[in-house]
Amino acid sequence: xxxxxxxxxxxxxxxxxxxxxxxxxxNETRIFITGQMMWGALTNAYFKETNEYQESLFENITCFYxxxxxxxxxxxYKNGExxxxxxxxxxFRKEFVTTYTATAIxxxxxxxxxxxxxxxxxxxxxxIYWVGYLEIDDKGKxxxxxxxxxxxxxxxxxxxxxxxxxxxNYLYNIKKGVYQDNNYPNPILNFVKxxxxxxxxxxxxxxxxxxxxxxxxxxxxxxxxxxxxxAKII
Length: 234
Known about the structure:
By secondary structure, this protein is mostly beta strands. The protein is 13% helix and 38% strand.
């Protein structure tokens, strides 16, 4: 069956935590959703709906970016600072991100357990929609509800499918001007494997685990350094 690229839009219903790293007791959140995280959420939701694990079904997928009002906030850098659209990361976090504080309680004493206090940065569901692109053979297979992140026990992560529209010009819209000769005239929308290219932006170690065989202690599938979204390859 032939597949097509679709622009996919999810509405954020609950706060979401898009894990990126820990700073002491603070678990910071990204302000965009990686394609790998969206793949995991879609694959998990599809498995729960159908009891079929299809690892490759959603593998051709982009990062997802917030849509505020009518504007999709795509990544870029200005004067060395990361932006989404015309909002700096600092401005976006001030407007849409807050911190949730939690701790484990000793059931006998009702006091907080030692060294369990932690803070989780969360993106608030303030009329935010998330937009990305997905190649699939049947858009009916895209789950209506997904959970982003691993913190659903706190009431985080729920998103609902709003719209899917076939994207005829997917080569430009997804790769944003990446041509066959590897010329990158615009800020990249997806992570690009670092192979000694010259670039303006940041580099990140990306790690992928196999959760299907060992959910609690997964095996490492692959890792490598990637040029981060919003960067320009020059």
